[in-house]
Design brief:
mainly alpha
């Protein structure tokens, strides 16, 4: 599922609303897009950290590592480095130190 977001968007609200969907493919698509814009909209995404962490903690959710990666980046921006590190490690191979955001 591709989610188009106009370049220079003013909000991540539309993307964030997809986290509430029951369809895993929609939630994963939302996490993929959030991962792309987290440095710009971390302050908005922070309001959904509980939801994103719940996805990571759900062993049956196929996008667990992606949820951990997005949450880790938000915690980093919040200067909560312990949580950022814990979740970065939970992101497994998605956590790539060579990737610049």
């Amino acid at each position: 599922v591709a989610i188009a977001q106009p370049i220079g968007a003013a909000s991540a609200g539309g993307i964030l609303s997809l986290l509430e969907e029951q369809e895993n493919s929609l939630r994963i698509a939302a996490l993929e897009r959030l991962n792309e814009v987290v440095d710009q909209f971390w302050h908005e995404i922070a309001d959904y950290l509980t939801d994103i962490e719940s996805l990571y903690e759900d062993a049956s959710f196929p996008g667990r590592e992606l949820a951990a990666l997005v949450a880790s980046k938000v915690f980093y921006h919040l200067e909560e480095y312990g949580d950022a590190l814990r979740l970065a490690l939970g992101a497994g191979s998605l956590f790539d130190l060579s990737h610049k955001t």
